[in-house]
Specification:
Elements: H1 3-30, E1 35-38, E2 53-56, E3 59-66, H2 80-98, E4 105-112, H3 118-128, E5 135-137, E6 150-157
Parallel strand pairs: 4-5
Antiparallel strand pairs: 1-2, 2-3, 3-6, 4-6
Length: 158
């Protein structure tokens, strides 16, 4: 074996090792390594079969959160604006109890029964996000049970 072949073989081994090392670092930084369910008694749970949120390494994923009244456990009212405001108030409480905040939300999904309520959503959105609003999508859905007109889920940084 010539010296050129030895050097070339060594370079291939080092390059392969470097690529593998970078790939494992990439996977470690990108993929979730831990997760845990999170619930707070300060917000009414929609259903005991799923958590209010799931916390991972750097993120918190909130389940759909309707505008439920904290005292009665029922929808706050039949008014879309009041339900929307209560949704975001409930989200704020869950996030703060988990160690995050509204400012750390990166994405919301707003599920609404009526597809023509964007002026109300925009109004409430600007109240809760006066600067740097998160990305959002707002699909129209089939009616929810119990008079729920809106449910909001989100992803936030911890």
């Amino acid at each position: 074996m010539h010296i050129d072949e030895i050097i070339l073989s060594a370079l291939r081994q080092v390059t392969s090792y470097t690529l593998l090392s970078k790939a494992s670092v990439f996977k470690k930084n990108i993929f979730m390594t831990q997760r845990r369910n999170f619930n707070t008694d300060k917000v009414v749970r929609m259903n005991a079969s799923f958590p209010q949120a799931v916390i991972t390494d750097n993120y918190i994923f909130l389940s759909g959160t309707p505008g439920l009244d904290l005292v009665s456990g029922k929808v706050i009212s039949d008014d879309f604006e009041e339900q929307t405001r209560q949704c975001f108030a409930n989200i704020k409480t869950i996030l703060e109890e988990a160690g995050s905040s509204m400012e750390k939300i990166v994405k919301t999904t707003i599920f609404m029964v009526a597809g023509n309520d964007f002026s109300v959503i925009n109004k409430i959105y600007s109240e809760f996000f006066p600067e740097n609003a998160p990305a959002r999508s707002a699909p129209q859905v089939m009616p929810f049970p119990a008079g729920i007109l809106i449910s909001v889920e989100c992803i936030a940084l911890l």
